[in-house]
Amino acid sequence: MFFRKIINELRIWANEKDRKPLILRGARQVGKTTAVEIFSKDFDQYIYLNLEKNEDAEIFNYGLPVEDLIQSIYLSKNMTPSQGKTLIFIDEIQNSPQAIAQLRYFYESAKKLHVIAAGSLLEVMIREAGPAFPVGRIQYMYLYPLSFEEFLAAAGEDQALKCYHKIPFPDFGFTRLLKLFHRYTLIGGMPEIVGKYIENKDIATIAPVYQGLLVAYLDDVSKYARNPTMAQVIRHAIESAPLEAGQRIKFQGFGNSNYKSREMGEALRMLERAMLIYLLYPSTVTQPPVRPALKKSPRLQFLDTGLINYFAGLQDYFFKMENLHLFYKGLLAEHIVGQELLALDMKTSRKLSFWVREKKQSNAEVDFIVPFKQHIIPVEVKSGKTGALRSLHQFMIRADHPFAVRLYAGSVEKTQTSTPDGKSYTLLNLPYFLAGKLYDYIDWLIED
After folding, report:
1. How far is CA 78 from CA 166, 320, 362, in A?
2. Which of 149, 94, 151, 134 is nearest to 117 (CA)?
3. 6-142: what CATH class?
């Protein structure tokens, strides 16, 4: 059972005066149940309900008043109320629209109880619950695959973790951290896979786990399709998404198919609601707020880079590459950075964005743009210690600040550079593996 950073956020939630029932969002198998089980050690009493089980789900089917509902929960588990702190965890809540609707009553009439729910494809259930959904009476958190920081902790790399948290990062730790980051990029952050790899140190032994995850996702998402034809479209989208990840996509003909834009768009948005993929739309702005250009082609971010490596058959070749940007057309370096950046925000569902300027003879694209206080900071993922910064220059010409970030296979450096028209700005160069510390380093850059 790996300690996850979200547990600290759960502890903050638990101590809030006006605490609301919490829905923990995340794709299947990212560790939601395990995180809550670890968190439950903070409580005097823990009640676990799995709504995939009929005996647990039927508790919510009768529309009981909240006092009777709570008594029914205790009775079903042969437990009595505790004078101490009690945590109720309602797992797989997507199986019961009635349970979702009744969450509001815990907030209104049972504030002493700590209530957490989790499930997949909750947006589907939100629509089915309609006006009964407890808007304003619940709050959300979001859990993703293990971040690099969590991977280091799970692997027992305590000294590497100390280096990781030191700002600025010490040069003597660079080689070790880069090697570990490549290993993390290879296997990904799915908890079961990380656990088996740490136990056996053998890539071959975890191949069945990757395959099992794919089957589980196919079974889970397809059952929510509105008809058998749409189920086939969704299955195609799941099977094709790892091969299209990191690239800008068109809905029409996605994955070399004959599917039309409308049906494939529906399938991909279903996968996004299941948090298996993220459609990252570009923006053309350089000052806040970031406004995505929804008419432009999005870039596809998949759940986990390790899954991409497995489904694309890349793992056998991975160990031969020292620079992520030399591997798989450079897409993995950008993709793992995107995965790290997504995991930084556990309290909102705000998606990542990138910057474009699209003209007939002069296109420009910056890999990521990050809102930070009153600025939008451009972030480029580049090969090696050199490389053209043409797109970054174009962004900085239009920016209202002098700060930019490059993630690359080199050490921490701050350099002064200039755009072609002479505007000077500070470029913070960070090794790939510090993507998860990006906000701390931007703050360090601006304050310094």
Report:
1. 49, 57, 69
2. 94
3. alpha beta
| Segment 339-395, tens digit of pLDDT | 999 999 999 888 899 999 988 777 999 999 999 999 999 999 986 555 679 999 999
Instruction: Show the tokens assigned to 401.
Output: 């600040």
Give yes or no for residue 316 having a pLDDT over 90. Answer: no
So where are the chain's domains?
A: 6-142, 205-447
Distance CA 243, CA 248 (A): 12
**pLDDT, average across residues 70-77:** 96
What is the spatial distance between Cα 144 and Cα 31, in angstroms, rounded to a whole number? 8
- Confidence bin at 331 (pLDDT 50/70/90): confident
Q: Where are the alpha helices (DSSP H) in 173-330?
A: 174-187, 191-200, 207-222, 228-244, 261-273, 305-311, 315-318
CA distance 261 to 269: 12
For 183, half-sphere exposure in the C-beta direction (CA atoms, 13 angstrom radius) is: 18
Residues 6+ apart with CB under 8 A from 14: 42, 85, 114
- Chain centre to alpha carbon of residue 398: 30
At residue 317, the pLDDT reads 61
